[in-house]
Request: fold
Amino acid sequence: MIGSPIGILWTTLAIIALVTAWLAQPMPREENALVVLVALVCLVTLLDAADTRRLRPFLGWIARQLREHPALYWLTLLIVVFGGLGMWAVERQPTYGRWLVADEYCYLACLLWIVLYLLFYDLQRGQLRSMGVKLAQSPFTSGLITITTLLILFAGLETYLRLFYITTDSYGFTAMNYHWYKNFYWGKYNSLGFRDHEPVPDRPGLTRIAILGDSFAMGHGIDNLDDTFPQLLERALGADYDVNVIAHSGWDTDIHLFQLQSYPLKPDIVFLSYYLNDIDYLLTSTDADPDRNFDTPGNPALSWFILNFFVPNFAYYNLMQFTSTARNTSFVADLTAAYTDDRLWSQQAQRLFEIVVWCRENDIDLRVLLWPHIRELDASQPAIDQVRGFFEVQRIPVIDMTPILRDNPSPGLIVSRFDTHPGLEAQRLAAAALYSSIMGTSAD
Reply:
């Protein structure tokens, strides 16, 4: 193929594969097969360039043999293209927010090189017409057309979801959620291990504010850290304030006090960002666990397929599970029921009381930012009333987001239709509410 436009591209791909393989060194041991593939690609390309006439019949033997059997040739192309891309997707999970690395470029260059070889290498005039006649007579052609169409549709949807749908869900079950955390959360921490900018050192005149909480406080589903309510609050307050995030996704009340005590900088004000599932540590692995409303597939093969590919994952969880009114209503009902269970609430109240006592003993101004389930404001009310009542008895100021959210209906209140964590508009409203709380105290 040397000299033709396809041949130039073919040769260029071999060079790219060689260069990226070198850049990827030292390559992981599991990539030994890729090293062998690169060597084979480069060897065939060099032999083709060295003596095309004598070696082309030998080098093109595989492609010619497959073209003698068009149905098998077609099936081979499908396996190479979609099987190769599928292996890459499963092993590396390419998604928006993550750059490809050198050995991935190497793999893709080799894959495209193989496809061009099968399509064009030593292709003789008249072969295409002969193949077309054979396919027209083959009983397998209609099946191959159907399979090809389905694979193209699947690949197109898979690509779309990976590029444009890396987002969270309410419960942390989906592949999209996992890769959002992988690309936008895990490892994107300051030196103290939190999704936050570096804290400002103590100095005279600086008021330090800590936001203590879980996924609501760290900005679950918000790609840009600076769009989360702690960062919006910090910018609104100005240089005399430093707002520090002490939060991780999944934290419940049982560890909040320990994390606050362990924080190396003493805050002047602590806002406890409280959401209804902060009591979840008392429910996990029990019949009352709200997550039990969302079944996971029991078949191992189906689980693997759903876990590794976004299309079935989206269909199973987002379309079948999270759109179920019954499931979501049951989730909120189970969660709220924990607050009306005297035994569970007494344990939770004791944990909250320990936070109150510690803040008082350390002369820290404790306040509470109270979040309902944003899509189920009325259903959340019994739990909200229980928590707010507890803190009011303790004379702790409470910012209840329920009336604020109710008075400002907007699609931006939640991250997405499948994720009821605070969206951009709710982040803005929370920051404004905290700002008013702080400025109101200052005015007094």
Summary: Residues 341 and 347 are 10 Å apart (CA to CA). The chain is about 60% helix and 10% strand.
